[in-house]
Amino acid sequence: MRKYLFGTGLLTAITGGLTLLRGMREDAPFTWRAALGWISWGISLALAIGAIVDIRRASQGEVIAPDSPIHGQEKKLVKSRLQRDRRG
To answer: How far apart (Å, rounded) are the C-alpha atoms in residues 42 and 4?
Structure first.
């Protein structure tokens, strides 16, 4: 579970969201640039969560979409999960 929560994509999305929130605190008006920043943050968060879901599915032996960044590494992830399960 820890490898999912401390993944770089998720941490980057969280810190980006915190930065956007800090920018909203300073009585600055909500402009189209701020809207684009929030849309960009939402897309980044969705991609990070999608990567976590793909890694979990691949490590369980399920088929993942060919456009996933980890496509082709399914056997390696299943093997590492089986080794982890044997140890403890």
So the answer is: 18
Q: What is the pTM of this model?
A: 0.71
32-59 helix and 74-87 helix, angle to the nearest 10 degrees = 60
Q: What is the mean pLDDT of residues 53-80?
A: 76
42: helix, strand or coil = helix
Does pLDDT of 32 surpass 70?
yes
CA distance 88 to 80: 13
**Could you give the CA distance from residue 87 to residue 79 in angstroms, rounded to a whole number?**
13
Contacts with 71 (C-beta within 8 Å, 6 or more apart), sequence order:
64, 65
